[in-house]
Design brief:
This protein has about 100 residues and is an all-alpha fold. The protein is about 95% helix and about 0% strand. The chain has two domains: about 1-55; about 55-95.
């Protein structure tokens, strides 16, 4: 997503260690990860809420049902075609 490589992470970590110092760095990392976790939880809950309001589950079920119906229709056409072929071959054998 952001295309951050290992070298960029290493540079940021080194600068952070120099600026923050070894005493405050663990506390800072803990605080940052705590805030990132809260942000991630907020985004996930907002996503679930939006999906529920839009009715994404119902849309997915409807699309699945339409797919199944299309497959049934396709199978029905194939069976009708096979049935016609069989009846034509039986007529040719008799006549």
């Amino acid at each position: 997503m952001f295309d951050i490589g290992f070298s960029e992470i290493l540079i940021v970590a080194t600068l952070t260690l120099i600026i923050m110092g070894p005493k405050r760095l663990p506390e800072t990392v803990k605080t940052i990860t705590l805030w990132l976790g809260r942000i991630r939880n907020f985004i996930n809950s907002a996503k679930v809420e939006i999906e529920n309001e839009v009715g994404i589950d119902e849309i997915k079920k409807q699309l699945h049902n339409e797919k199944i119906m299309n497959e049934i229709e396709k199978s029905k056409r194939e069976l009708n075609s096979i049935s016609k072929d069989l009846s034509m071959s039986q007529e040719n054998e008799k006549g």
